[in-house]
Amino acid sequence: xxxxxxxxxxxxxxxxxxxxxxxxxxxxxxxxxxxxxxxxxxxxxxxxxxxxxxxxxxxxxxxxxxxxxxxxxxxxxxxxxxxxxxxxxxxxxxxxxxxxxxxxxxxxxxxxxxxxxxxxxxxxxxxxxxxxxxxxxxxxxxxxxxxxxxxxxxxxxxxxxxxxxxxxxxxxxxxxxxxxxxxxxxxxxxxxxxxxxxxxxxxxxxxxxxxxxxxxxxxxxxxxxxxxxxxxxxxxxxxxxxxxxxxxxxxxxxxxxxxxxxxxxxxxxxxxxxxxxxxxxxxxxxxxxxxxxxxxxxxxxxxxxxxxxxxxxxxxxxxxxxxxxxxxxxxxxxxxxxxxxxxxxxxxxxxxxxxxxxxxxxxxxxxxxxxxxxxxxxxxxxxxxxxxxxxxxxxxxxxxxxxxxxxxxxxxxxxxxxxxxxxxxxxxxxxxxxxxxxxxxxxxxxxxxxxxx
Length: 453
What we know:
Layout: H1 2-7, H2 11-121, H3 126-156, E1 165-168, H4 169-186, E2 190-195, E3 199-202, H5 204-220, E4 226-234, E5 237-244, H6 280-291, E6 295-300, E7 304-312, E8 335-339, H7 343-355, E9 359-363, H8 366-374, E10 382-386, H9 395-405, E11 412-416, H10 421-430, E12 433-436, H11 441-452
Parallel strand pairs: 2-4, 8-9, 8-10, 10-11, 11-12
Antiparallel strand pairs: 1-3, 4-5, 5-7, 6-7
Helix pairs in contact: 2-3, 2-7, 3-6, 4-5, 5-6
Domain Response regulatory: 335-452
Protein name: histidine kinase
Organism: Methylobacterium gnaphalii
């Protein structure tokens, strides 16, 4: 029945069905196109999603690498810091050891020099005077070496703290010239200074050491001509030149000049040219670096050498000069109290003072001084006292006792082989003069004359 119905359909019905089929095909095509477009869009988003995931993975990987590198750097920095602290600790330990050892080394050296000076005052034969001079030079070399090694150790350990203030260069240069003129004249050299009245900001003690080393080297390695110390103002800076007419330094050796134990070429006939320790310019460089004073060297073989120091200018101060001790006079009749626990040093010092016609009372400690007071000891004109006494006692305790119990405000010279700032501060607060061992007899005599005057 159905088939008959279909076969009996009118043309209009067939055409209507065809139109419906075509419409459905168009709808289907449209739907398929829409689906394909949707699939394309979904495919692009997926690709972007995959790309984002890949980039995230790379970023994570790079981040992990950077984090690992940062941890490695932190560990390296910690290791470097630990190594630095270990080196600084080792330097401080070395400095303390050298300071302690130097005290024991300088004590017998001090006694030997005092005894040698007393021996020379006895006017023995010319031959004995020659031997005494040779011994004196040997002792001086040992003393210089010990002190220089201590200085280098302190500078390397950062234990030297410069005290900066305004310093009048004219006075300092004049003092350097007066000190080295005899050595220059002995070699028939001219020592000339050109110094305007200028002030610089520096540590006077360290600057004096620097100039002493530079001038000493210049005189030592100059055979003919002379040495010039020139000071010039350069705007806010000041320039100090130490110029010599010596043999000069080959260009290949100039980089070595400021290293330890450099002593220059040995082609000189001057017997004093090889007497240096080779540590002077090493000390100069370290001190200049500590002061932040740039230093430069210019030299030509056969023409000479110029070493330049650059300093900041300072303000004029009425007390910026340096005190120069007067020439020593006789000590006849002066009462001197000596407190020294080292028997050999005490004996040598007493002998030397008696050779200078002084009246000497010597004791080992405070107990000895107290006994002498009980026996009627008169007030001394000056006291020479060792800082370190037996059983941890300090020489300044004797000074304090005499001031408290007797009211004796007597001039005091404190001697010690300890170069620490703490002792220097204590001595300064007491109003005493500090003399480091080994004691130089000429220096001691000049200081005594100054204090007694």
